[in-house]
Amino acid sequence: MSSAKKHRILLIEDTVPLAKLYIEFLRADAHEVVHCTRGREALDAAAASPPDAVILDLKLPDMDGLEVLQALQARDLSVSVVIITAHGSIDLAVEAMKLGAFDFIVKPFNADRLNLTLRNALERRALARMVEGYRKDLDRGRFHGFIGSSPEMQAVYRTIESVAASRANVFITGESGTGKEVAAQAIHRASPRRDRAFIALNCAAIPKELLESEIFGHVKGAFTGAAGDRPGAALLADGGTLFLDEICEMPVELQSKLLRFVQTGTVSPVGSGREERVDVRFVAATNRDPLAEVQAGRFREDLYYRLHVIPLALPPLRDRGDDVIEIARSFLIDYAREEGKALVDFAPEVEARLRAHDWPGNVRQLQNVLRNVVVLHDGPQVVLEMLPPLTGAGGIGADAAAGAGVPADGGLEEDGAVLPLWQVEKEMILKALRLSGDDVPRAALMLEISPSTIYRKLQQWRAADGAAARGSAA
Fold first, then answer.
1. Sequence-ordered list of residues with C-beta below 8 angstroms from that of 429, at least 6 positions apart, any chain
2. Which part of the chain is the Sigma-54 factor interaction domain (predicted)?
3. Torsions phi, psi of 328, nearest 5?
């Protein structure tokens, strides 16, 4: 059976006739074989071009085979080693396996025995590399400005790595505060354009009458106040990346000019008849549903399809599990260092509170909460009393973990006061579960929400209840 990939095999055997025989054996799988007769020569060859596998005779003229094995391990070469040994040296071969060798074969052996052992060694190496790749992905808690180890963010990291080297335009979507500009910068930093400019333009923050000039530039006298020529973001980003944030806020009349820029790679400054060619990689972002904007006539369909080549959706913080604690701890340490405070960690009930909140403002809201805590408080640990009120859907007050009845008037106390939204939400979900006999899909249908929302809420409430119980016991 031929191997699909040609592998580089380092054969370390001082008996030349035997080495020629082994090379002949290995022709069946069309390997590239590098033969060395001495240990030091073999180590130099491995350093110059790391092999996929090593076939190692334990008896060498200049050094012991075990020394060669240990040297290969010390150099952290990801290589499978097959030991060749005689009948009288099996104990030595077993010792070699304890030191990291994959397997051993006893002389004399035939071609089938050698090739089968080598195939197994190469497969083990491939699997080990695959597992190591997965482990690195799962362990990756930071990535070009992002913090978070959740599966949702690992998928984002992989997408960024996959698209970074391409020239394809990327369209980022996500709620406000999810890190769309961080994602755009990550794409730029991971790309071949990393040494050129990254220019960010927020289409919602610039008056529409000035936006054209900001993107394309202008010449002297183009309009009142244009005292000189000024390059726009398109020219400044030449060779690099142009990030157009809140792209759906761009006036429709300007979208046609942007479309031509995207199509042709040329720009014409305001007030100028000349065109300039630029090389720009476009990354656009919005917190709206871009297709809904197209259907409503507020965003050009042809521009959408030009920019929406590679979609990248950023998950909201509430769907990222324990990422909220990783991010909060990073903010806490950074802000405490800036303010000269001693805060370094959270009490368990605080962690439960942070996990249970829905964070409608996402990472930006969490950032503000931690800044508030650090500025106003000090001590070795953040406790519940230090947290400001957490507002928004799923907001948690001091008695958030406790259930509360909701009167028939839909969220009003007897005196007419409005109940907190989180309290109404919790009671409605619990009521739907009671009416459905704890059938989550049926309860979700009654509430017209996703079953996953109910499962997530139940998990958050259980975590908050458990933390509160542990805090009381302490």
1. 443, 447, 454, 457
2. 146-375
3. -60, -40
- pLDDT above 60: residue 406: no
Is residue 392 within 8 Å of 361, Cβ to Cβ? yes
Looking up residue 326, the CATH number of its domain turns out to be: 1.10.8.60
pLDDT tens figures, 214-264? 999 888 877 766 777 888 999 999 999 999 999 999 999 999 999 999 999
Between 202 and 89, the higher pLDDT residue: 202
Phi/psi for 403 (5° steps) reads -75, 155
Q: What integer best gives the mean pLDDT of the chain?
A: 85
pLDDT digits (tens, 9 = 90+) for 329-386: 999 999 999 999 999 999 999 999 999 999 999 999 999 999 999 999 998 999 999 9
Measured CA to CA, the distance from residue 368 to residue 372 in angstroms comes to 6
Question: What DSSP line would sit under 230-260, residue for residue?
Answer: B--HHHHTTTSEEEEETGGGS-HHHHHHHHH
- Which among 260, 282, 259 is positioned nearest to 170, based on CA atoms? 282
pLDDT of residue 132: 63
161 exposed, middle or buried (CB, 10 Å; 0-12, 13-18, 19+)? middle
Is the residue at 173 inside a domain?
Answer: yes
Is 449 domain-assigned? yes
Please check whether residues 305 and 342 belong to one and the same domain. Answer: no
Q: Which residues, in sequence order, are bridge partners of residue 345?
A: 381
Strands (E), 323-442: 345-346, 381-382
Q: Quote the crossing angle between the two packed helices 348-356 and 323-339, to the nearest 10°.
A: 120
Number of domains forming the structure of the chain: 4
Q: In CATH, what number is assigned to the domain containing residue 92?
A: 3.40.50.2300
- Report whether the peptide linkage leading into residue 348 is cis, meaning its omega lies within 30 degrees of zero: no
Residues 352 and 470: beta-carbon distance below 8 Å: no
The one-character DSSP state at 112 is H
Tokens of 51: 């092999």
Residue with tokens 């805090």: 471
How far apart are the C-alpha atoms of 331 and 327, rounded to whole Å? 6
Whether residues 116 and 155 share a domain: the answer is no
Residue 321 and residue 309 in one domain:
no
Classify strands 8-12 and 80-85 as parallel, antiparallel or unpaired. Answer: unpaired
